[in-house]
Amino acid sequence: MDRPAPGTRLIFRWRKWDGGPHWVHDCVYLGSDQWGDWFGQPTGWRSSRPGRDHVAGGPNVTLLPPSGDYALTVNLAPPASYRIYIDIAWDVRWDGGEPTGIDMDLDVIRAIDSRGVWIDDRDEWDEHRVAYGYPLDVVAELEALAVDLERRVQGREAPFDDATGDAWLARLASMDLS
Length: 178
Description:
single chain, 3 helices, FomD barrel-like fold, 10 strands, alpha+beta, 43% strand
């Protein structure tokens, strides 16, 4: 699939395993590198889901890797309380010219304070894998992925290092999006 030109505004749509709506992010396509496609969200742009609306307090960039099993968001922190937020996902891909994916509840986070790196939302994962009937092979694959990503984030391996995200945050800052 052809990618849009850098600077193109799009919507990144998340859904839940049962097809129900989840987060919708206003974003801009930044380009791609060896890690995948990158999207940006400047300060003031919106993200929403049923029952919640959020305005970005600072810029962030999101990587959609070719594997389609996670989305990495890097924040210019503060004001965010975390530098890295990885949504463990399923079927993250381009669909109809826009990025989309299934949020699978588990997240890997690197906080900017002393909390460090951890896998978040294990309670939600346990609840939803039963309620949505996640297949056992998907459960095993994504649990192993979360542990591997936690290790890679702790080790600050690229693209989970600061330099990679900072380069894309700089590209976002250089764009005229008015």
